[in-house]
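#dry-run=false #mode=assembly
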Amino acid sequence: MASRAVDRRGWWNYFAAQQATLLLAVIILIVTVLAYLGFYAAQFHHLPNSFAWDSTITNALPLVFVGVGQGIVVLTRGLDLSVSGTMDLTNGLAATHMHASLASMLGWTLIVLGVGAAIGLVNGLLVTVGRLQPIVVTIGTMSILQGAAAAILPEPGGSIPQAYTNVLGNTGSPVGLVFVALIIIAWLVLRRRPLGFALYAIGNDPQAAAANGLNVARARIAAYVLSGILAAAAGLFLAAGSSGGDATGGDSYLLASFAAVVLGGVSFRGGRGSMVGVVCGAGVLTVLVNVLFYAKVNSFYESFYQGLFLVGAVLLGLGVTAFTSRGRRGGAR
Amino acid sequence: MSAEVQAPAPQRSWLARRSATQRTLAYSFVVVALLLAVGVILKPGILSGSSLRIIAELASFVGFVGVGQTLVFLLGGIDFSVVWVLNAAAILVVAQAAGHNSNLPVALVLTLGVGVVVGLANGIGVAYFSISPIVMTVGTNGIIQGLALGLSKGLTCSSCGAHPAPALTSALQGRIGGVPGVVLVWVGVILLISLLLSASTLGRRIYATGVNPAASYLAGVGVKPVTVSVYVISGLFAAIAGIMLVTFGGGASLGLGDPYLLESIAAAVIGGVSVLGGRGHYLGTVAGCLALIILVTILNAEQIPQYAREIVYGGVIIFIVLLYGREKRVT
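#status=ok
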């Protein structure tokens, strides 16, 4: 059924409408990695060893997870500013409560993910049942969560069991790739389920989605719950990677999660983009820090180049979209 | 005929006959009055001259940033770049003047110019390249942050630690009739922006564009120039807020702008400005600024710890918008 529709419209049109921005995200990731290799090799006269790769992947994990959560909400034309607060809180919870026993580690992982889901549920209910704007709701919950995080962990401290760090924050083996693969597989499964379909439908046209019998409120709540769970997971990765807690550790991830979504080719107008792209976008941002470091850019100028890179990538994406949607009415936005 | 039309009118209350914007404006000032009443009960000293003076001055800083955020909201956009435009302006006005009055005019022109240029870039990106406002302003925020940190070497440059030029401090912190100069400037800005929104062509075009850009374009509104001018105003006022803040704090610091993104958004929202565009007024944002600062003053006076303040702060914002900031039911 779907393939016949594709045949009629032509393979190129289908590709242009659905996958061009994803392809662009992959290309940008490859170019960034090549730049990293170039600058690294120019300095050390050999390619990065496995430790450099493993630690880069591990460093990317918090942004990968929080970015995908943000991307799912953005897909429904929403916005989740509370992800940074969720990361602060979950990071603090793990650092203050987790002990080096299997039961404690598993139990607290589940509790923390549950806390993330509950936060997402509150956001989702306020947005749908409360009929409030997502940006307003999540600013409020962000402030509450940051306060709660500061109450649990007034100053950086706490500890994460070494065994936990070995699994979630291991810089000595490519175990991080397993988590990246897991989230990509989970997304590919989800987007073929009714919920994934609903997320795209709501983002494209909420009224049409409702008129066609989709439960818009339920799907939007689900988007915020997923974002909460993924932000909580990001908080765990952050804690494991730094083997301790910091109640403000998640704050810098808010704008970074937007940047990962943008570089991943997800439209802030909703309904377009793939979370595989967001994973690439998070990778780009992480590798970019390495590129700037090995290019001997003064670290004060880091955010200058990141901002320039972001705006440049968006312009490139718009150019590609304009090119691939030539002659199609109401082309991909 | 006229009798038929008039017949149902008396049944509607005064409030119900106002527009949505006027209604939420009224609610937001009720919130200010209620918070002030709570303040008086908990801490009678809140109505003293010195207490009111500090409330007005702290509210004015949010109010300057809030000018831009309000206008941008009216178009359905958002401006994340206010954070580092403010901080860069604070650094520039201090470092360029290096404590000497003679350098002040150049420093002021440069500082306001930075705000205008960033606003111009935001506006052009949003209007002419249809980049999402979130993306564009997050990008320019990073660019200006990097430039500010890089050029001032992380605020370690020789003149970065200087005090603001004495003439600037005495003009803005000096008092006329007990009112600090900063607050007098804010009163002027409130009048100016209210006139702009309620009685000028640009104001009508901003509302028209926010309600329906396509229809406004067909009706002859230059949607793109209007968008650019709104982002320019936002950049300009973020820079003005930076200048005001250095005279209050006695110098520039890193992270000076961080609280003002959320506070300016919260003030506009409490004031009934819709983030979807077309609804709200700067007077509402003014009420929102006052409400936030009075709330903070009460929490400080009660010696509530910082973490609890953040929790109450977030809770109150959500509570207030639940009272009158809800969207219409989509049927």
